[in-house]
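Hey,

The postdoc asked me to send both predictions to you directly instead of through the lab channel. I've kept everything plain text so nothing gets mangled by the mail client. Protein one:
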Amino acid sequence: MWPMLVASKILGKRIGSNNFVADFPNNTEALLELSCLEQQSPRPKIIYNDDLETHNHKVFVSTWNVGGVAPSENLNLEGLLDTCNNPCDIYVLGFQEVVPLRASNVLGSENSRITMKWNSLIRKALNKKTDELEINEEGRLEAKQKQFPTKGGKPMESSVTVPEFRCIISKQMVGLFISVWVRSDLQPYVRSPNVSCVGCGIMSCLGNKGSVSVRFRLHETSFCFVCSHLASGGREGDERYRNSNAAEILSRTSFPRGPSLDLPRKILDHDRIILLGDLNYRISLPEPATRLLVDRGDWNALLRNDQLRIELMEGQVFEGWQEGTIKFAPTYKYYPNSNKYYGAVKGKRGEKKRAPAWCDRIIWFGEGLKQDLYTRGESRLSDHRPVKTIFTTEVGVSWKLKGLRSFFRSERFERITSQLDDLSSNIGRSSFQITKTIDHPIIL
């Protein structure tokens, strides 16, 4: 078993693009059938911009290197997700080192028990029953007013039911793990979910470093999220290895085009693109100077020497990508279960010098994304702090679909469903009566 696993990883054997975990079976078969019908026509179906209406949705994205620490059953993710104060429509959570990066994990098969634990905690936090949210007229979650007056002037609680969140894609490659969740009422409009894994680690192919990318189409807009873990190292020149990893991820990541050949194949071909992860870029200053500026909280002086910012400005990596303004402390490296940076405690011998740095980042490419929040969490689970962001994203919705959805929300549709319920109830009673009449055997 082991030789086969190792050979498949070293030879870069591609994992099936639909090999991921989700709350419900994807609709690949249905899409294949529809696509085959489309292929019978000489021209593919085209939806023009004039046929689309733009809707805004909130997207939450986070990245967290958990240092190989398995989560406990009582780990609370509500503080990180903050669903009550900042409710979103889509949640994308990326993790690095969900398992220790030792040989047995790098060369062996994935440990799904750990990712199942993380998904269970995410589900618990997202689907916590709350009376503080409702769906507005645009179909988005927002904080609701506590009471609504009735005709008699007496207040009563809103009857709006907040939909649950469902996992549409969950994928692990060694220590990398990404999990994507959407509101259950948006799930029917999600199509073509796929994954693509790229290993950039040992021998430039193993998955201790690299990326897990996921993509899907919401209505008529394609999304791509890239969860990455780039080469480590704090020595001068190590940033070149990180640049090389990034270039490999962008060039080697590939998705299926679909039966109609109309789906984006490469990362940069998608409409909305977000890259998250432990990018491992450090601060190009002597360690004492870095620690002094951290103690002073002088983020601007530190950012002027931040390797990722420098490489972006010089066009060495991620050309054309954007990052929001950083107004939070460096996220690496902390003592476990402590708010002290590694190396800050005097008298500890044998410690490697690890100056603080913003290793954990979230960047994006293209238009249609507006960043509303960029900050960090304060969980002390590992030597990294999680980083999170919220985007407002534009999504193209077909006019035909909008008309259909309006019908489903109309009073006419409610009357029809009510009549059908009555009819079903009457049929059920009739069936019961018939059953009772033939309950006794007939003797001929």
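Protein two:
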Amino acid sequence: MTRSNRFFRTVFPVLLLFMLAGCGGGSGGSDSNSGSNAGGDSNNGGSSQMLRANAGNDRDVVTGTTVTLDGSQSSTTGDGQLSYDWRLVSKPSGSDAVLTRAQAATPSFTADADGAYVAQLVLGSGAQESPADQVTITATRGNTRPSADAGADQNVKTGALVTLDGGASADADGNTLTYRWSVTSRPAASKAPLSNSTTRTPSFTAGVAGRYVVSLVVSDGTVSSRADSVVVIASQGNSVPVAEAGANQEIATGATVQLDGRASSDADGDTLSYSWRIVSQPQGSAAGLANPNSARPSLTTDALGDYVIELVASDGQASSVADRLVVSAGPVLALFLYDNEQQAIIRAPNQVTTAADVEEGTGDRTIVNVPLSRFVFRAVGRDYTIQDVSTEIIATPSGRTLDPNFQNFDNGVIPMGTTVEFTTNASSVTGSGIYDFVFTFTIVETGEKYRFAYRLTVN
């Protein structure tokens, strides 16, 4: 850089982040029904805490499907955090299936061969362990058995009209389903018929206080599902509220998720209070819930993995059974803009205007290098590939040139766990005037295209 005369330059870098393809969407939630294979209780040595593992319901899938298991409806009577230990105890001959994230609430595997896969879950809390619970996943290449879902348990006032809903039932082949509902248990004095028992939404009147159990079987026209049941409790006095924590969610690690328990209900119409807590979180996480006694708390994830969160609703007289959801924090490539004045890392996208004095020179003298911005990439949970790294000059003063360039950044792979620091620069600026130019690159795994637009003014 020359040092004969002093001049002033102002850089107007405008950071534009075009998220042309973002992170993937969410997953289905869970209701208050226990799995058909619910395990036993454990109090290991007389402790007051009881642990019950719930590996979920048996189901059928198409061979080649990636299967996600769900142990989030496992329960404890204590308030300690839970741990999950899954194992594939049986798989078909010739299968190479292995569990991914076997210590998470929602591990997965690929059903790579026809046959039955048996997964086992043991729930832990401190030194205690539950009895094992198992779930069977059956993979076939032909027609697949559909899965019945009778819906969430309900608490109602005696005399209420109860509407059931089997709409969450599914068929892996996409076949149209038919429905067959039946009342398998009811209070002794009840004679209530089940109306529209071959539709998705049958109904009955809970005319007598007590417990009603209704079973659903669905068919794709070739094979029928296993039965699933829903429990309806009718009461004459105060009804116990029903908590609804919402659907499972998938977000990027470091993102904030808004929870919502406003779908919780009380048959008496009483005002509800809410109590949320984190039941399980990834190792090393220090995340906590913001406003855990509100209907809509939030959670900012700080580690890769599953956060199992439960909600209990109360009407002031009785508390609901806990309902749980899973927030899965996935891999993320986080880009930060480093503010040199504040010495703080700011999450992009951001808009920044900076002004700085540089060494003396003349309006016609070439500037060797003008530093523009400093960035940090952090790869969490997986490797990420950078491609299409390029720069483009949009406009320069007549007869002037410059060389926009990245330093310490090019096409290639950023390995998982790596932090990469790089800068944008303008080199060989040949004199005074206004220069417009851009820096671009793409993240292969997410499809995100980044574009940084700068205006450099040299006086």
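Summary for protein two, as requested: The chain has a mean pLDDT of 84.

Thanks,
C.
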